[in-house]
Design goal:
Elements (H helix, E strand, L loop, with lengths): L7 H18 L4 H8 L3 H9 L7 H11 L3 H6 L7 H7 L1
Helix pairs in contact: 1-3, 2-3, 2-4
Length: 91
């Protein structure tokens, strides 16, 4: 099975997710959070930097628990950013 390339919107969503996780981690040590989530520090580094824009669901759940963030809050970062025109059309 061939995996289709990510769309630009999916890449941007992954970057927003990574930024949200990084902000939630704040001053906590990256390795400490990674171990608490059961992933490697390098994996967390890739997620936070946007180099791994589509982490596995279980990884997102574990990071949310380790950081005290709900899945709903994390999911907000995955929503597409609508342009002003798209927002007016959707209303």
């Amino acid at each position: 099975m061939v995996r289709l390339p990510l769309t630009p919107a999916q890449v941007q969503a992954g970057r927003r997710l990574g930024a949200a996780l990084r902000a939630a981690r704040a001053e906590r040590d990256l390795a400490e959070v990674a171990v608490a989530a059961g992933i490697s520090p390098e994996t967390l580094r890739k997620i936070e930097s946007g180099r791994l824009p589509t982490p596995a669901f279980g990884t997102v759940v574990a990071l949310g628990r380790a950081l005290g963030i709900s899945l709903e809050d994390l999911a907000e970062n995955w929503q597409p950013v609508l342009s002003d025109t798209a927002r007016r059309t959707a209303s």
